[in-house]
Specification:
With 688 residues, the protein is of the alpha+beta class. 34% of the residues lie in helices and 26% in strands. The longest helix has 31 residues, at 656-686.
Length: 688
């Protein structure tokens, strides 16, 4: 609750500063400002010269004294009665504030335009200064807030490459996991988000020139790479196809505690290693981040790794770690043109199992970790991508499913269970999935693989594989899991006369009364090469570790902090404009937009991280507020600026009717945008 109030008050402060900019400029320009309010709604306390401080609005006392409202009085009348022209008020709702200038009250754009002290009667250059003053105030506040944040120091995701899309721009350019990006086109890269923005803002057919510090190289080798970003199908933004690396410290977030402990147990680590522990070394090599751990594991050839961990109490624990086998990734297109990725071997895919369950899942009382999906609706033997696609196509539905569940007793027997799954408004069941590699059960085969912009058939595409069939043998060698199948395939050699490999695959048909069938599996040299090239990975996923952060700090130097504040304000403003442009073009879904509820929700989570994060977040919001007000919407500063420029060029203002209609359209647009983003926020919060 405290974090919520802090964000609410902070958001209100940004609006007050914006209006204070308008107010100060209006005073400078000689425009009469009848009121300046902090907050909205009923007046709690007010002050006007000649009346003093009072509860409620001072206007009531003025009316009682002279018979009319102060704004209806001329300057001479106010002076005669010793009244100030501005009422300063504190209002009940801490949702910002406003300034009321003569000629802009009650949504009447040219009211009192004949009065030389009205907004409409002000010379155009001064009017432009008044309009831009609010935007300038927010940008100045952002710089000040950034200055404060950087004097203290703020953590950001480090610009170090973690996971790479094998078909992404970065991987094709030779960028590796663990590489630290130092600069892009000569501009210094401080955070991973800087790199994301640089790629998103890059121009098509204009490769980015990146300077990298290569991890693990002798003497910290620095290399230059030219890479052409490609459009990411999910975000619609130009992307390098990389994710930031994680640190070497296991995450201690409360919501992930059970998941991390289960993963540690699955990896065979002792119970003394718990969330919050840090991986110090593997095979004697110091680990700086997760990318280092992955690099060492991939070079292990499957041999056990000697790991050393530092626990929360600073004690050190040594434990062996077995690298996990990697499997082939198959890329294919959905019916709607979207990309799906499946894992398996030569087109044979495993069933998918529940790795963990989101505490907010509608199925938390139904499913258990380890449950293996046999069917979903009318779809038998779904791969992970099949299951995800199926439930996404059935939002807010109750879907029948069959699962295999391992008994909790010492036998560990597998039991088939029928149950119903409930999906939310986005077609999600609220679970994390992983392939059931440890079982010999087959899912629906992967039929095609997208390579070099072409889709080719997989070896399994020609086989009559029945979903949920059980692997029994390969060339008469017994198979009891996909790990066994991988090892067997890696031992296969090509026939020197044909340049291919013909293998006998024995599968048990799951249908009642069916007998095992033997199928001929034909592998090309390329198929076999891909299988034998499969490597190894670190046995714990990157998401079990905290992000790898870099501290951005001015080290107590105010001038450097100001410089960093200017740079960050410019970068954020550019990013906001880019996002608005992408939404307008339709390359980014408008459902990604957040409204006040979403901002407050994110803000409360940020506030929980500490004061420097809160200050930085408010600085981001201040830049956002400046950018939004600069948009050419009639009731925003950008719209007023257009009216003033039109008047300066044409020599006359737009008609009163046009301005009134424009203001009305602007109000309708903003109200519709508010309702749309409010619906987005509530849908996210409620999981609808």
């Amino acid at each position: 609750m405290g974090s919520f109030l802090l964000i609410l008050l902070g958001f209100g402060l940004l609006i007050v500063v914006h209006e204070l900019g308008h107010f100060a400029a209006a005073k400078w320009a000689g425009v009469r400002a009848d009121g300046f309010a902090v907050g909205m709604g009923p007046v709690l306390v007010s002050y006007r010269k000649g009346v003093g401080c009072c509860f409620g609005s001072a206007d009531a006392r003025v009316v009682a004294k002279i018979g009319k409202r102060p704004i209806e009085c001329s300057d001479e009348e106010l002076a005669k009665h010793g009244l100030g022209e501005t009422e300063y008020s504190l209002r009940a709702l801490p949702l910002g504030g406003y300034v009321r200038m003569l000629g802009q009250e009650d949504g009447q754009p040219v009211e009192s335009s004949n009065n030389p002290r009205s907004f409409a009667g002000c010379p155009i250059p001064k009017r432009i200064v008044i309009i831009l003053a609010g935007i300038a105030a927010n940008l100045l506040l952002a710089i000040v807030l950034f200055l404060g944040a950087f004097l203290h120091g703020v953590n950001f995701e480090a610009p170090i490459v973690g996971a790479l899309d094998p078909e992404g721009a970065a991987a094709k350019a030779g960028i590796r996991a663990g590489d630290r990006v130092l600069s892009s086109d000569g501009e210094r890269i401080d955070t991973f988000n800087d790199l994301v923005i640089a790629a998103a803002m890059s121009r098509p057919e204009s490769p980015m020139s990146l300077t990298l510090a290569r991890s693990g190289s002798a003497g910290g080798e620095t290399i230059a790479v030219s890479v052409e970003p490609t459009v990411d199908a999910a975000s619609g933004l130009r992307s390098l196809g990389i994710a930031p690396t994680s640190s070497a410290t296991l995450t201690a977030i409360k919501e992930s505690d059970a998941l991390v402990r289960a993963a540690l147990l699955s990896a065979g680590l002792p119970a003394s290693i718990t969330p919050g522990a840090r991986l110090e070394s593997l095979n004697g090599a110091t680990i700086a981040n997760y990318a280092d751990a992955q690099r060492i594991a991939s070079a292990s050839d499957g041999t056990p790794l000697a790991s050393v961990w530092t626990l929360l109490d600073r004690t050190r624990v040594e434990a062996p770690l077995q690298p996990r086998a990697m499997f082939s990734r198959f890329r294919s297109l959905n019916a709607d043109g979207g990309l799906r990725i499946d894992e398996g071997l030569v087109g044979l895919a495993p069933l998918c199992a529940v790795e963990a369950i989101d505490p907010s899942s509608r199925n938390s009382e139904t499913l258990r970790p380890g449950d293996v999906f046999l069917s979903i609706g009318d779809l038998a033997g779904p791969k992970a991508s099949d299951l995800i696609a199926y439930v996404r196509a059935h939002p807010k539905a109750e879907i029948p499913a069959k699962i295999l569940r391992r008994a909790l007793d010492s036998t560990g027997a597998m039991e088939e269970i029928a149950l119903d799954l409930n999906t939310d408004g986005d077609g999600r069941v609220g679970v994390y999935l992983h392939p059931a590699w440890d079982l010999p059960l087959l899912a629906r085969s992967v039929l095609t693989d997208k390579r070099d912009e072409h889709e080719i058939a997989t070896p399994a595409a020609s086989l009559a594989i029945v979903p949920t069939g059980k692997l029994l043998a390969l060339n008469l060698a017994s198979i009891s899991s996909f790990y066994d199948l991988r090892a067997a395939l890696r031992r296969v050699e090509l026939d020197p006369t044909t340049g291919t490999a013909s293998l006998q695959l024995t599968v048990q048909d799951p249908r009642e009364g069916a007998t095992p069938s033997t199928m001929l599996l034909e592998l090309s040299a390329d198929d076999l090469t891909q299988v034998k090239a499969l490597g190894w990975r670190f046995p714990l996923d990157a998401n079990y570790f905290d992000p790898e952060y870099v501290l951005l700090s001015a080290d107590g130097d105010p001038l450097r902090a100001v410089s960093m504040g200017f740079k960050r304000t410019y970068a954020v403003g550019k990013s906001v404009f880019a996002t608005i442009d992408r939404v307008a073009r339709g390359t980014v879904s408008a459902t990604q937009l957040q409204g006040p509820i979403g901002i407050l929700h994110v803000g409360t989570r940020v506030a929980d991280e500490g004061l420097s994060y809160l200050v930085f977040f408010l600085a981001l919001l201040s830049v956002n507020l400046a950018v939004v007000n600069a948009l050419p919407i009639p009731i925003a500063d950008g719209g007023l600026l257009l009216f003033a420029l039109y008047e300066g060029i044409r020599g006359k203002a737009p008609s009163v009717r046009f301005q009134s209609m424009a203001v009305l359209c602007g109000i309708i647009f903003v109200a519709a945008l508010f309702l749309f983003t409010f619906a987005n926020d509530m849908r996210r919060l409620l999981g609808l």
